[in-house]
Amino acid sequence: xxxxxxxxxxxxxxxxxxxxxxxxxxxxxxxxxxxxxxxxxxxxxxxxxxxxxxxxxxxxxxxx
Length: 64
Hints:
Blueprint lengths: L1 H17 L5 H40 L1
């Protein structure tokens, strides 16, 4: 039981005294960067999907 109490005590101390939390403006700018990167990746995946779909349709049309 002592180990569990000690674990939570050390965890609390770490979160309160040792972790450097971002400011609100840093958090907002990071969120914007992540959102834009996610959007770019989604567009790239969509374009790859459409390209491969088109290529496979042409392939099946020629050989089947």
